[in-house]
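JOB MANIFEST
job_type = single_chain_structure
chain_count = 1
residues = 204
[input]
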Amino acid sequence: QDSGDDIEDVSLFDADDDVSRRSKKSKIRHPVASFFHLFFRVSAIIVYVLCELLTSSFIACMVTIILLLSCDFWAVKNVTGRLMVGLRWWNQVDDDGRSHWVFEARKVSAQGGKTSSEAESRIFWLGLITCPMIWVIFAFSALFSFKVKWLAVVVMGVVLQGANLYGYIRCKVGSRKNLTSMATSYLGKQFLRQTMATEDQTAS
């Protein structure tokens, strides 16, 4: 087990590797995992959007969506994250009753044989980020359209998929880094870069 203090960096959208290795990293090594990473979460969204056209039974739609969301939560948390980007997270309670977040990252061998595929990494992170945003939109839509009966289903989607998103972001950035400070640092760098670009244009 590796705590959050010992986490290998896994490529998100940047291509930091050499050009000679890019062709190998662009291949999808785990097509089944990549398929099911998107299948359950996309299916839950499709059922939610089309449920009123498919059936008039609210209970059947609700149970189907919750089952799909539960399968997605388990698959992403335990299988696809480990295979596609080499990350895994969970929460455990010690003997004193205290809760601990545990983060694992795949150890990269000296030969680089366990580096993650860039294509799989993009599929993983795009699916992980996009779908919770869609459920948040559904939540506001259900709230403002007074569809109270759907609000519980939508909140379930936000919570389950948001939990996976939060867990894997913590895996990516490391438990010692505060997400707020990371965002502030990123915005500061962007502001400094724009300021320098403006000064260069003025000087020229």
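[summary]
The helical segments are 19-25, 31-54, 58-84, 118-144, 148-173, 179-203.
The longest helix spans residues 58-84.
exit_status = 0
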